[in-house]
């Protein structure tokens, strides 16, 4: 397993009490598979993703990323783990308006210490993988919403993560563009052998994913292998 959440409980202050966002959640995601976590707004989907990304520390339970248990890691160690093992695609692409598509990726590659030539080569390879090589020199305002989201996906894959976490990637897209993005995520998950978790409130595009789990009121229902979606 590349991503393993075991017995995760997460609470937040709520006046004099505590609000339970996640209630003993357990989830195993093997490499090369995409698990969609569906559920209504406020059900705990975003909290689950934040815990899996090591951005939030749970009250109880363990998170293991590519064999590394994150319990007790320092802030710096968690940052290093995210940088090298976890790719995150946020709901909004968050692209820098002054940079072209290829420059968005080159910047991240240079931060990671790659030479200019290696950075551009890796960036162009990924843009080609998401079908955007012809748009490499375009800035965000020159790209459609679906194209901007594909740049964000390419950026998340830059450091060859073993875990890919995706937050509502189709929420701002129409049905056709949303389907294209979901098909792309499924294909890249299998090609790049990532353990991918995608959270969404919309099941309409999920026919091609490997597994659909459902979260409600902080509790996660995960189908047994071969049993189909919940």
Automatic annotation (TrEMBL):
Entries under CDD domains matching the protein: ABC_MJ0796_LolCDE_FtsE
InterPro entries: AAA+_ATPase, ABC_transporter-like_ATP-bd, ABC_transporter-like_CS, ABC_transpr_LolD-like, MacB-like_ATP-bd, P-loop_NTPase
Any GO molecular function: ATP binding
Domain ABC transporter, first and last residues per copy: 3-230
SUPFAM superfamilies in the cross-refs: P-loop containing nucleoside triphosphate hydrolases
Keywords linked to the UniProt accession: ATP-binding, Nucleotide-binding, Transport
Protein name per the record: ABC transporter ATP-binding protein
Organism of provenance: Amycolatopsis ultiminotia
């Amino acid at each position: 397993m590349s991503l393993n959440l075991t017995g995760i409980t997460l609470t937040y202050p709520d006046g004099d009490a505590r609000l339970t966002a996640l209630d003993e959640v357990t989830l195993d995601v093997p490499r090369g598979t995409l698990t969609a976590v569906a559920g209504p707004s406020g059900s705990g989907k975003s909290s689950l993703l934040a815990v899996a990304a090591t951005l939030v520390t749970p009250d109880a339970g363990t998170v293991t990323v590519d064999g590394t248990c994150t319990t007790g890691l320092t802030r710096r160690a968690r940052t290093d783990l995210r940088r090298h093992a976890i790719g995150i695609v946020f709901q909004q692409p968050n692209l820098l308006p002054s940079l072209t598509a290829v420059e968005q990726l080159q910047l991240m590659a240079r931060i990671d210490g790659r030479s200019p030539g290696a950075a551009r080569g890796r960036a162009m390879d990924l843009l080609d993988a998401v079908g955007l090589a012809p748009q490499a020199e375009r800035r965000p305002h020159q790209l459609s919403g679906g194209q901007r989201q594909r740049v964000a996906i390419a950026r998340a894959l830059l450091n060859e993560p073993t875990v890919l976490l995706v937050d509502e990637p189709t929420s701002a897209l129409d049905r056709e563009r949303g389907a294209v993005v979901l098909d792309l995520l499924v294909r890249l998950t299998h090609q790049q052998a990532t353990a991918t978790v995608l959270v969404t409130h919309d099941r309409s595009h999920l026919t091609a994913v490997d597994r659909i789990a459902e979260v409600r009121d902080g509790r996660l229902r995960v189908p047994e292998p071969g049993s189909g979606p919940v």
